[in-house]
Amino acid sequence: MKKLDSSFKVIKKKLHEAGFKLTPQRELTVEVLLEKEKDHLSAEEVYLLVKAKNTGIGLATVYRTLEILTELQIINKLTFQDGIARYDLNMNEDKHQHHHLLCLKCGKIEEVKNDMLLEIEMEIEKEYHFIVKDHRLTFHGICNECASNQLN
């Protein structure tokens, strides 16, 4: 709970610094994103969870809030193979985000926290005189659970 509180304070501060108020609708949207941090929710999934907490919130309001949070780099908007935009909290002040493992059978998305591409980045910067600001990497395959089910 302490991590959620500190993350919430950071998000509130970023919104305030950018000139946005933390309206009750935005607060609920942020709350859902923090509670479901590992789930890579779509806008519709966020909306349904927010609506379960407050039936008076519309889908357009949730979409606008997600766009504001994306613009402020509080969340990342990711699109995987299914073409659905999903949202991922960006609470790290590091240069890079984590990578993803996407199961082609069940659609489960797992996070890889290690950044194993630093050497490649340095090579790119040196050889191409290109300053890398970020990179995204998704591995497509079969998760352990689906692989085990295939054997049975």
UniProtKB/TrEMBL annotation:
Protein keywords: DNA-binding, Iron, Metal-binding, Repressor, Transcription, Transcription regulation, Zinc
Origin superkingdom: Bacteria
Biological process annotations from GO: negative regulation of DNA-templated transcription; regulation of secondary metabolite biosynthetic process
Binding site for Zn(2+): 103, 106, 143, 146
GO molecular function: DNA-binding transcription factor activity; transcription cis-regulatory region binding; zinc ion binding
SUPFAM superfamilies named in the record: Winged helix' DNA-binding domain
CDD domains attached to this UniProt entry: Fur_like (cd07153)
Cofactor binding remark: Binds 1 Mn(2+) or Fe(2+) ion per subunit.
Cofactor(s) named in the record: Mn(2+); Fe(2+); Zn(2+)
Binding site for Fe cation: 135
InterPro entries membership: FUR, Fur_C, WH-like_DNA-bd_sf, WH_DNA-bd_sf
Family: Belongs to the Fur family.
Protein name according to UniProt: Fur family transcriptional regulator, ferric uptake regulator
Organism in which the protein naturally occurs: Alkalibacterium subtropicum
